[in-house]
Amino acid sequence: MSDSTPAARYLRAELQERRLHGIRKAVHTALLLAGETSGLGGPSIADLVVVRRDSDAPVIRTKAGTLDEADALLRAINADLERMTVEEFLAEWGHLAS
Fold first, then answer.
1. Which domain of life is it from (predicted)?
2. What domain count does the chain have?
3. Is the residue at 72 inside a domain?
4. Strands 11-17 and 58-63
5. Which residue has the higher pLDDT, 65 or 7?
6. To which H or E segment does residue 89 belong?
7. What pLDDT digit, counting tens, does each position of 27-51 carry?
8. Which residues contact 97 (CB under 8 A, 6 or more apart)?
9. Cα–Cα distances in Å, from 58 out to 28, 39, 43, 52, 75?
């Protein structure tokens, strides 16, 4: 791996639906709808996951936030994957790993 190779060659970011069941799913859905319609936001709609392209192993997983937050986070991470090396990317975003 070259020092100048973009991280996007080795990593990709994606939104993955949060898997909730039973009462937690019902409460989450109600809060999401209420938050989005009121403009106050709501619970996280998905997890943002950065995975290795060669193995699909997760490197970073974090709650993506509301619809607007998830979109902005995914766009920011994808932009950094294109312009940073893996080392730079992990130094910038590694704090999100859970």
1. Bacteria
2. 1
3. yes
4. unpaired
5. 7
6. helix 86-93
7. 555 555 555 565 555 556 788 999 9
8. 59, 60, 61, 62
9. 24, 32, 22, 6, 18
For residue 61, tell me if it sits in a domain: yes
In a domain, 47, yes or no: yes
The pLDDT score that the predictor gives to residue 5 is 95
Tell me the pLDDT band of 21, cut-offs 50, 70 and 90: low
Which structure tokens are listed for 26?
Answer: 């019902």
Q: Which of 2, 10, 1 is nearest to 81 (CA)?
A: 10
Tell whether 2 is covered by a domain: no
Q: Which two tokens stand for residue 94?
A: 């590694």
Distances, alpha carbon 39 to alpha carbons 34, 74, 94, in Å = 8, 20, 30
Is residue 84 within 8 A of residue 92, CB to CB? The reply is yes
pLDDT of residue 79: 98
18: containing domain: 7-96
